[in-house]
Specification:
Helix content: 40-55%
CATH class: Alpha Beta
Strand content: 5-15%
Shape: globular
Mean pLDDT: 86
Number of domains: 1
Structural class: alpha/beta
Number of strands: 10
Radius of gyration: 21 Å
CATH architecture: Alpha-Beta Barrel
Largest sheet: 8 strands, parallel, barrel
Length: about 400
Amino acid sequence: MRKRISIVFLCFVLIIQLADYAALSAEKRDFLATPQSVSLSPQMVMGTTYSHRQSKYLEMDEKETYVSVLDLGFQRLRLAAYWDEIEKQADQYDFTTLDWQISEAKSKGMPLVLSVGIKSPRWPEFFIPDWVMRHTHAPYGAELTEKNPYLRQRALKFIETVVNRYEGERIIRYWQVENEPLDRSGANFWWIKKSFVEEEVALVRRLDDRDRPVLVTVATYPNAFVRWMFRLFSMNRPIPEIMECGDIVGLNVYHAIGQKFWRVKFYFWIHPEERLKYYSRIVHLAKLRNKELWITELQAEPWEPGELAYRGEERPPSGWPEHARVVFDEFRELGFRTVFFWGAEYWQYRKTRHQDAGWCEMFLGLLKEEPRDWGLRSEGGQMDGPGIFVS
């Protein structure tokens, strides 16, 4: 009986998925079914993300780690305005940490991407102050903003406060609004609907007299099984929808994902053929939408089963410098010009705690190989590879 019910349920899910696919627009079907190739873009802009909260979790000195990351010589750095840290009480703001980070970046001439919103890089994904959470009610897997007007109101006010404070900082070259907002994530598997993201983006554009480009990001799943599992529980389509929100779309890329179910540990490995086919489709969709594409998180740290951050001395299966280099070369050959590596705090942890400078040495060598070309616009008025929008 249970087997019969399972078969019926599986058939029902399959029918729903087929019906959902049939209902997609031709443009979205192109994304799902039409691989595209793009020309090589030899010039690269490489960046990374720094989170002092991750450094704190790894029991590293937050400021020393940050300065070490700046000294690696990347060409861009992404920082986050963590709402629960900056506004611990309503209308009382403490920008001490972020002010210092921006000041240090400015002293070293490091162009910044500043992320604002409810979601920010690193766990637990959603950084909502306790005083806002007391007025927020959302079950597991729910869209967070539609039935929580107080949360929406306070989030918009927080974004307005951050943008007004830093709008005059020339070292900030881009705003990022939310982090993977359309994807379900975090301990409660929440997500944020597209219409609210569009409202946030519109607010940032209205406040910023310098008209900086707005970045929005999305999780990607080149592994067919993982992608199917997420689609099973998520009837929205984050990638086609996020293309309608900002000026630049950032793809978050993980090539080795460790998971733990009870006591069983296992990995999802992404093969090069899967990546090429899957990301070529996204490139095609971006061209249809005339959107610029970045890689905003290219995995450059382990993702071990059941661990928020790997601390062991042994080289873990899911994260070696050689892995990140191979995947980077694939995206370079696909035509991407802007790639942010993910894991800067771990590289410094590995270097100081285990005397393993392999990650830092790999990036120092990689940065020397690539020309530092900030003039990423050329003549012609058209898309010149997915990592650049040419006007």
